[in-house]
Amino acid sequence: MRTYDYAPLWRSTIGFDRLFDLLDESQHRTEDNYPPYNIERLGEDRYQISLALAGFAPDEIALTAEQNVLTVEGRKSNKDQRDYLYQGISARPFKRQFSLADYVQVKVASFDNGLLRVELIREIPEAMKPRRIAIGAVASAGQITQKAA
């Protein structure tokens, strides 16, 4: 796999630190494919992550959201020791992390038929949304008067 040097971009950009960190991290990460998951777009600002967690109970799964990272952890409890002749359903502990964009929040999580579904929504604060600025006219004395929009 190729690695890229982002140093030239650091010299000419401001405020993209998080993006470059994500790109750099993705180059060095060894991807574990367990548990399998889907990421869906449900609408313009709505998303859903579905994880296949066969064999896990809801109380054996921990879901944590903090600082633009969603973490899903699972650990089987040892209360049900069985003598398997063949164990094809994996029950190993796992930790899967998803990087979330700014203003993306976890709304609800549900567990049904071995699928953990996590719904996410991007809610941009009113102060961050684009707004129209009225252009005033310059009066003869140098004062700006507002035009009605």
From TrEMBL:
SUPFAM superfamilies the record matches: HSP20-like chaperones (SSF49764)
Domain (SHSP) ranges: 28-138
CDD domains found in the cross-reference section: ACD_IbpA-B_like (cd06470)
Any Pfam family hit: HSP20
Keywords from the UniProt entry: Stress response
Tree of life domain: Bacteria
Family: Belongs to the small heat shock protein (HSP20) family.
Name of the protein in its database record: Hsp20 family protein
Species, as recorded: Bradyrhizobium jicamae
Lineage: Bacteria, Pseudomonadati, Pseudomonadota, Alphaproteobacteria, Hyphomicrobiales
